[in-house]
């Protein structure tokens, strides 16, 4: 049975949005994905487990929280929307990762 999962995700730029979409599309059982950058929400429609979706997003370093899980609404007639302003190409979080910022203490394993 298909369900609609709405998640709160911190999406600041196009790079963040693309990374979240790529992480979630790896899961099976997803019919439709949509992102709202202004509200910071990710909507997934399909049979995928909401906990698995959050786990995939957290693996890429983003914070995600489940807002709601329920049946999808029936499709409404399409209305033309005004174009949304584009997100900036990159945010401060992405730039820190790009120049070598390591958020965890990573040490190589040594065999005694």
From TrEMBL:
It comes from Liquidambar formosana. InterPro entries: HIPP, HMA_dom, HMA_dom_sf. PROSITE patterns: HMA_2. GO terms for molecular function: metal ion binding. Keywords: Lipoprotein, Metal-binding, Methylation, Prenylation. The lineage of its organism: Eukaryota, Viridiplantae, Streptophyta, Embryophyta, Tracheophyta. Belongs to the HIPP family. Residues 2-65 form the HMA domain. The keyword Metal-binding applies. This is HMA domain-containing protein. It comes from the Eukaryota.
């Amino acid at each position: 049975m298909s369900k609609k999962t709405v998640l709160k995700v911190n999406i600041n730029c196009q790079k963040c949005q693309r990374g979240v979409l790529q992480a979630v599309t790896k899961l099976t059982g997803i019919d439709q994905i949509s992102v709202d950058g202004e509200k910071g929400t990710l909507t997934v429609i399909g049979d995928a487990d909401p906990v698995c979706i959050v786990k995939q997003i957290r693996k890429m370093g983003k914070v995600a929280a489940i807002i709601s899980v329920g049946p999808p609404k029936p499709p409404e007639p399409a209305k033309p929307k005004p174009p949304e302003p584009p997100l900036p190409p990159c945010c401060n979080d992405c730039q820190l990762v790009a120049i070598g910022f390591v958020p965890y203490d990573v040490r190589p394993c040594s065999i005694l």
